[in-house]
Amino acid sequence: MSNSILRTRHSARAFKNKEISDDIIKKIIADAQWAPSWCNSQPWKAYVLTGDAAKKMHTLHHANVVSGEKSWTEVVPPQFTTNDWTEGEWENMVDFWKAADVSPYPEDEPQDKLGFMEESSWNFHAPVIIYITIPKNATMFSAYDVGAFGYGVTLAAHERGISAIPAYEFIRYPKEIRPFFNIPEDEAIFMGIGLGYAQENNDLNKINEFEKNPRAKTEDILQIVK
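Above: the chain's sequence. Below: its structure in token form.
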């Protein structure tokens, strides 16, 4: 197997209490800016919380979660109904839920032995949170572009020994995010990415190991015509 950063990177959900310098954050974002986009439109913006501001967000977010505050993202997320997914996609998600010992359904009572839900409610205590926005009038092409930028963030971080977790959890309460920044009203908060130095021996960081969540067989998703 290749040792490419594409294969060695995976999401982390437990981080060391170790800050990332502003200089490194800027370099990660600068590298990600090389993502391709429609006519070089570069439809993304990045808003970053770090240091005391990130810790304040952790506390605020946890309070919203435990109080049962209804989440309402600015970009509609996927829904957890089988009709919205192919059989293969659904099986992949079920494998992930089993590895994490969680369920998307409130009526279920998973063990959550790994503490996934608890850490999630604290935004995984990520030392850095990056919020990525997209124009509210954007097309699906721009969504592709912004996704490429976000993936670039995770790879640029990984190249520097920093782990990342793109997650809905970070953006589920836009009203807690906007007061920290001057985000124009014509931008929608699209995705959040947590950055940090991963705890090596925490089982939360083993959820996405490929033996637990393998990728589909390449021949199942590929057609080559000559």
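Residues 5-221 form a domain with the NADH Oxidase fold (CATH 3.40.109.10).
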